[in-house]
Amino acid sequence: MIRAGIVGITGYTGEELLKILSKHPQVKISGLYGRVTSETRDLKDIYPGFSGLNLKIEPLDAQKIAATCDVVFLALPHAVAFEVVPHLLNAKVKVIDLSADFRLTRPDVYEKWYKVNHTAKEFIEKSVYGLSELNSDRIKNASLIANPGCYPTTIILGCAPAVKNDIADLNGIIIDSKSGISGAGRKSTKEYYEKEHPNFRAYKIAGGHRHIPEIEQELSILSRRDVTISFTPHIMPVERGMLSTIYVNLKKKISTAEIIETYKDFYKGKAFVKILDEGVLPGIKDAVNTNYCEIGMKADARTNRLVIVSVIDNLIKGASGQAVQNMNIMFGLEETEGLL
């Protein structure tokens, strides 16, 4: 059995990890830890629905985690992992970090967008970007996984086959994304319900969102040239789910059917990516409560543009489910173990 710990259990992604790992046939939950709590609490006091697990939430203690866990999931705010990760890696514990702290390959880019000094720069080279479908070979041998953000997961998976197969003109990529309110965390969700529900709005427009460098970095790696995107995120009045509509100019005349065939071939054998047939587009209800990314598309012959619609559950494939998928790969299990 894999001994797993969760740090940051009181957040949405921590709770989702608990749901998945408590039912995973190859996992024993060996520790639950709060973000900053200084006292031990019964899990049932926070989540009554998990009373049958008879577990406690303990203060964050890197030494105890290192002694009791084979893998630990860090569901922490940005910059908190800097002090924890070095200790765990030195103790030979595998780490899956759900924050942005090790996603960006250049610390100066991280510092520019996240407005904080990166104090664990030497561990960036040890990290592997954990987009499971694209990096599984590297994930297998990794000790530190930088789990992708939710918006980047929909967008990179939606773009990758077109970028890699030189279908897309990389100039002028426009992305319009909508997220359920849980993507902003418990505190923001509470504020949304108190102050503005059922509002639907854009935010952090015109280059203001911190996921932009992550998306541009990974698309640049795929295409082997610098990629710049226009990205507008929105909050929609549902609890969970994420839909990204991506507009890319085509480099040549090509039919929708041909592009779909290219996408199906690219993701052949990838259990959690569904490429939909021509004329079918995904909605968030198709992906909510699953670890799937569903992708539909249509080539617009009039404008010579490809429109891609990519849908996930922001808390599962966009965070905790993908983290468990990465764990499965790291430990040589079937990617789908505990996720179907």
How would you describe what is shown here?
It contains eleven helices and 15 strands. It has 340 residues and is an alpha/beta fold. The strands form two sheets. The protein has an eight-stranded mixed beta sheet, with helices on both faces. It has a seven-stranded mixed beta sheet with strand order 10-11-9-12-15-14-13. A hairpin with a 4-residue loop joins strand 14 (293-300) and strand 15. It starts with a strand and ends in a 10-residue tail after the last helix.
Salient structural properties:
340 residues, 11 helices, alpha/beta, globular
Q: How would you summarize the topology of this molecule?
A:
Elements: E1 2-7, H1 12-21, E2 27-33, E3 41-42, H2 43-46, E4 56-58, H3 62-68, E5 71-74, H4 81-90, E6 94-97, H5 107-114, E7 127-129, H6 132-139, E8 144-146, H7 150-164, E9 168-180, H8 186-195, E10 201-202, H9 212-223, E11 229-236, E12 242-250, H10 256-266, E13 273-275, E14 293-300, E15 305-312, H11 316-330
Parallel strand pairs: 1-2, 1-5, 2-4, 5-6, 6-8, 7-8, 9-11, 13-14
Antiparallel strand pairs: 3-4, 9-12, 10-11, 12-15, 14-15
In short:
With 340 residues, the chain is an alpha/beta fold. It is built from eleven helices and 15 strands. α7 runs parallel beside α9 (212-223).
Number of helical elements: 11
Low-confidence stretches: none
State the shape: globular
Spatial separation of the terminal alpha carbons: 19 Å
What is the averaged pLDDT score? Answer: 93
Number of strands: 15
Helical percentage: 25-40%
Q: Report the major sheet.
A: 8 strands, mixed
What portion of residues belong to β-strands? 15-25%
What structural category arises from helix and sheet content? Answer: alpha/beta
